[in-house]
Each structure stands twice: as structure tokens, then as C-alpha cells.
């Protein structure tokens, strides 16, 4: 027996080496599982709440938070799924930075902080909080869309010229990079751009669709910097349906996910509640003299 013991020990050590090598290979193949010894439980809990959380982030009851996952992942600078240890660890770091308990668990309080961070990036919202309603731009700063840029559901005509130029660069790059967007000419078409405040008020009165009067009194579309982009639709729903199912469907599409990752490079920031609504945040620059 003693003579065979070294061989048995060698076999055990070889087996352990294989296990260690396999674990290392798995970590290398799937870096999202890093720190599983610390954050696996939180990741598992997030994977469940992603679909089961009953909450009302915007008043109406919703189930789960998958609709907001692309924006949250982008904010946390990770593409790892909600159920992974790495996502939980990044979420905990965000919570700690914003004076929340760093649990690594998604909850309503954490979402409200995300929402505040995103809202602060919208100059229009900050102006409204200060009691100001930005004036519409002069007519000479508005440019016309071409037919291929307008979505058939709601034709719009104008955007501020610098915003229109940025939109065109963005749409061209999206079509060059994403086959699904290139294959569907409707995706990223604009169904609402500049809206004259008086016309907005008249439409509100005629249709009875005033969004609590905000749309009629002071909409971001009056600035010529807000665009409503077609990012897909749930069958049977409108291009701007705000039902939880509709918004969830839009947020999982290729167009929206590309915008979340890339629109900031072109000067656009999102409105979390409406996957189609994006606002240009770069300041207007007067054209240089010829």
C-alpha cells in the first residue's frame, strides 16, 4: 500500500490541478462571475427581482426592472447581466458613492438615485426646476428633415440645425454598425422634433392629451433639441405607448440598446421613462464667419 501511495497522491494532486485549471478557465471565459464568493447571493437575488419585483417607479404598478437594465448597466460601466456577481459589486459601488447602503441589491431607493442622476443631465429639466421655461429657437436656427428621416406615424418637419446634424451622424453610424438597424429603415426615424408651443397647446386642447398640461405649457420639444426616435413597437401598440409592456419591449431592441451605449458620443441624453425620447445637451455654437 505504501508503495502505491505516491501514485494515489499524484492522482489527487493532478485532479485538483484540473479543477483549479477549470475554475480559472471559467473565470477567464466568463469574467462576469468574478467575486462570486462575495456577490453570488446578491446576483441571484437580482436575477429574481429583475422579473418579479412589484413596484411603481412612475406611479403605475410594474413587474420587474428589465426595462431600465440597459441604462443601469451603462451607468455602472458593465455589460454583465443583472444576475451576475460583477453586476452586484458594481451596483454596491454605485450605492456607496451615493450614500446608500452598499448591498449590491437592486431596490426602489437605488433606482430613484439613478433617475436623479439621469435627470440632472437634461438641461431642460434643470431649467424647469429653477422655474424657467426655455424659449423656442429663432426660425433661422431650425432645419428641415428629409422624408427618409421622418416616421410615417407622425410627420415632423424641424429640428435645431446643430441637433439635426448630430442626429444624422448618429443615425448613419448606427446603420453602419448594427445589421438590424440597417435592415429596417423605420428604426431611428424621428416621429417628433421641434414643436411650436402654440401648436402644441392647440393640439392638446383638440385631442385632450396634455400630459398633465406639461406638454402644452412647456415641453422639451419647444427647444428644437428633443427628438422622439422610432425604436420599435410592441404589436398593437403605438410608437410612444407608455404601458409597461410597450416600454419593456422597446428597451430590449437593438436600436435602443445601441443608443444607450453610443448616443452620448453624439451629444444626446435619454429620458428614462420614454425609450424613444432623447435630448441634445451640447450647447449651440454660432457658426464661424466665412
Total strands: 8
Apparent shape: globular
Assign a percent range to the helix content: 40-55%
Order of helical and strand elements: HHEEHHHHEEHHEHHEHHEE
| Integer-rounded radius of gyration | 24 Å
Question: Count the helices. How many?
Answer: 12
Low-confidence stretches: 11-25, 286-290
DSSP strand content: 5-15%
Strand order of the largest sheet: 5-6-8-7
For the termini, the CA-CA separation is 95 Å
Q: How confident is the prediction overall: mean pLDDT?
A: 87
- Counting helices, strands and paired strands, the structural category is alpha+beta
Q: Concise description?
A:
The protein has 290 residues and is of the alpha+beta class.
Task: Break the fold down into its secondary structure elements and pairings.
Layout: H1 5-29, H2 36-52, E1 54-55, E2 62-63, H3 69-76, H4 85-97, H5 108-119, H6 123-129, E3 142-144, E4 158-160, H7 161-177, H8 179-183, E5 190-192, H9 197-207, H10 214-217, E6 226-229, H11 244-251, H12 254-262, E7 268-271, E8 274-280
Written overview of the protein:
With 290 residues, this protein is α+β, with helices and mostly antiparallel strands. Helices cover 47% and strands 10% of the residues. A four-stranded antiparallel sheet has the order 5-6-8-7. A hairpin with a 2-residue loop joins strand 7 and strand 8. Helix 2 (36-52) packs across helix 4. The longest helix has 25 residues, at 5-29. It is globular, with a radius of gyration of 24 Å.
Amino acid at each position: 500500500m505504501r508503495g502505491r501511495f505516491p501514485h494515489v497522491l499524484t492522482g489527487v494532486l493532478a485532479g485538483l490541478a484540473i479543477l483549479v485549471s477549470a475554475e480559472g478557465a471559467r473565470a477567464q471565459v466568463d469574467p462576469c462571475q468574478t467575486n462570486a464568493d462575495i456577490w453570488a447571493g446578491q446576483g441571484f437575488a437580482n436575477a429574481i427581482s429583475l422579473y418579479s419585483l412589484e413596484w411603481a417607479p412612475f406611479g403605475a404598478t410594474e413587474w420587474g426592472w428589465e426595462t431600465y437594465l440597459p441604462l443601469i448597466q451603462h451607468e455602472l460601466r458593465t455589460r454583465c447581466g443583472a444576475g451576475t456577481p460583477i453586476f452586484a459589486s458594481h451596483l454596491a459601488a454605485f450605492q456607496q458613492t451615493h450614500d446608500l447602503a452598499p448591498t449590491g441589491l437592486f431596490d426602489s431607493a437605488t433606482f430613484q438615485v439613478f433617475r436623479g442622476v439621469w435627470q440632472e443631465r437634461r438641461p431642460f429639466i434643470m431649467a424647469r426646476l429653477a422655474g424657467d421655461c426655455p424659449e423656442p429657437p429663432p426660425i433661422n436656427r431650425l432645419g428641415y428633415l428629409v422624408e427618409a428621416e421622418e416616421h410615417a406615424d407622425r410627420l415632423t418637419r424641424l429640428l435645431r440645425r446643430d441637433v439635426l446634424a448630430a442626429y444624422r451622424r448618429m443615425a448613419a453610424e448606427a446603420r453602419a454598425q448594427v445589421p438590424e438597424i440597417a435592415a429596417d429603415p423605420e428604426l431611428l426615424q424621428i416621429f417628433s422634433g421641434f414643436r411650436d408651443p402654440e401648436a402644441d397647446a392647440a393640439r392638446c386642447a383638440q385631442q385632450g392629451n396634455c400630459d398633465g398640461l406639461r406638454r402644452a405649457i412647456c415641453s422639451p420639444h419647444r427647444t428644437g433639441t428633443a427628438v422622439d426616435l422610432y425604436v420599435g413597437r410592441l404589436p398593437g401598440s403605438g410608437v410612444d405607448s407608455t404601458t409597461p409592456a410597450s416600454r419593456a419591449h422597446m428597451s430590449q431592441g437593438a436600436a435602443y440598446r445601441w443608443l444607450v451605449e453610443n448616443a452620448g458620443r453624439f451629444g444626446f441624453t435619454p429620458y428614462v421613462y420614454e425609450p424613444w425620447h432623447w435630448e441634445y445637451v451640447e450647447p449651440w455654437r454660432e457658426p464661424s464667419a466665412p
